[in-house]
Structures are given as structure tokens and as C-alpha cells.
Design brief:
heterodimer, A: about 150 residues, Aldehyde Oxidoreductase, domain 3, about 30% helix, B: alpha+beta, Ubiquitin-like (UB roll), 2 helices
Chain lengths: ~150, ~80
């Protein structure tokens, strides 16, 4: 199983959690990005994500590798959804494991920031009033930070 | 004439009305190809907002394109 995946099916949260198990792991940090029912004051009905899967997976792997070189991690994993998502569904999952919590927290937050900036995925919101709009987004960052 | 496959995502997919197409082109760089597609199909995203990928690798706009390449113009992203 790849450490970073893109899937058009529900993220199996329990299965990803199990992959963080490690006898030396004293701190496991999991971030779940979940579809919420509003955006900038407007009611959201559901989301659809598109992703350029081959490049998204490769970039995700590069990010995880970079995280492992920055912090002493026992595990670093991630998964991003594509397709149709209802309110409350997990759109993204990032998990880290380390001997101590500080590294696991720091790496998890850093990985998530990098995923948002560098992984080619696009979110389309369908609002309660029927409007359908691509999120404004940010220009894809191609270089890793120093 | 060289033929390339162009994949479209998000705003560009909506504007082009398809997720991929084969394009016969005289363009020699990614930039020339995008200009051609803008003229043919009225794509509205400016070059400065896009990142270009050839054969699943992000490249510069002046990178050459060759017969059989897969070219993708990546709009601003909104993952997470």
C-alpha cells in the first residue's frame, strides 16, 4: 500500500489508523479534514473533488519523504478523496507517529500545509441555493520550501 | 503534425467541456500550446495562474512538447 493515496471511495479511517501502530510510537497524531456545511457564510449542500491522481500521489509521496527527513518519524501517511462528498465525510486524512508527541504534531501540521499547497486537487462546492462553484484556490506551488 | 494528449481539470474541464482530448498542434512549447487552446476554445485562466505538467512532471512553460506527450495545465488548487 502506498503511503500517500488518492481515492474516489470513502477513506477507511480505521484501516489508516492501524497503519500508524508501532511499538516505539508514543505519539500518534491524526488530522481529518471533513466536509463542513458552510463556506464564507453560505450554506453548502455537498462537495465534489477532482484530482490529477498520478501527480497527486507522486507529490504526496515526496511530501511524506521530506517530512521523514525533517522529523524522526516512525510513520507518515496521507490520503485525499476525489469524487462526490457529503457533509461530514472525510476529504483528507494525514497521520504521523513518533516516539514523542512534539514531532508527530509538527510533522502532521506541516504535511497538511504542504498537501494543500502542492497536491493537484480541486474542490467544487454546491451551495444550498443551487450555485455550483470551484473554490478560489491558490496557485500550485512546485518547489519545496527551504 | 505532432499529436499530444491534453488533460483538463476543474475550471478548464468545464470551459473545454471534456476531460481529455488528442490535439494535433504546430506548437513547440507548452506555452505555445496553451495559447493555441485559448484561441481555439476561449479558455479564460491566465497563464500566470497555471502550472504546466508534461508526462506527469511539473515543467517550465518554455519546455518543448513532443509527439505522444501528455500535457496538463493545472489551475489553482484547493485540496484539503
Amino acid at each position: 500500500m502506498d503511503d500517500f493515496q488518492v481515492t474516489d471511495r470513502s477513506i477507511d479511517l480505521a484501516a489508516w489508523r492501524r497503519r500508524l501502530d508501532h511499538p516505539q510510537g508514543g505519539g500518534l497524531v491524526i488530522f481529518e479534514g471533513v466536509v463542513r456545511d458552510h463556506h464564507q457564510g453560505r450554506a453548502v449542500r455537498h462537495l465534489d473533488y477532482q484530482g490529477y491522481a498520478p501527480l497527486a500521489v507522486r507529490t504526496g509521496q515526496v511530501i511524506l519523504t521530506a517530512a521523514r527527513s525533517r522529523w524522526p518519524l516512525l510513520a507518515a501517511l496521507g490520503c485525499h478523496r476525489t469524487g462526490h462528498l457529503e457533509i461530514g465525510e472525510a476529504a483528507v486524512w494525514i497521520g504521523t507517529a513518533a516516539a514523542h508527541r512534539a514531532e508527530a504534531f509538527a510533522a502532521c501540521a506541516w504535511i497538511m500545509d504542504e498537501v494543500k499547497a502542492r497536491v493537484p486537487v480541486w474542490k467544487r462546492e454546491t451551495f444550498a441555493d443551487g450555485a455550483v462553484e470551484w473554490s478560489q484556490g491558490t496557485i500550485l506551488r512546485t518547489e519545496a520550501p527551504e | 503534425m505532432p499529436e499530444v494528449t491534453v488533460l483538463y481539470f476543474a475550471h478548464l474541464r468545464d470551459q473545454r467541456g471534456t476531460d481529455s482530448e488528442c490535439v494535433a498542434t504546430t506548437a513547440t512549447t507548452a506555452r505555445d500550446l496553451y495559447c493555441e487552446l485559448v484561441q481555439r476554445h476561449g479558455l479564460t485562466l491566465p497563464e500566470r495562474t497555471l502550472i504546466v505538467a508534461i508526462n506527469e512532471a511539473m515543467v517550465r512553460w518554455d519546455s518543448p512538447i513532443a509527439d505522444g506527450d501528455t500535457v496538463v495545465f493545472l489551475p489553482p488548487v484547493s485540496g484539503g
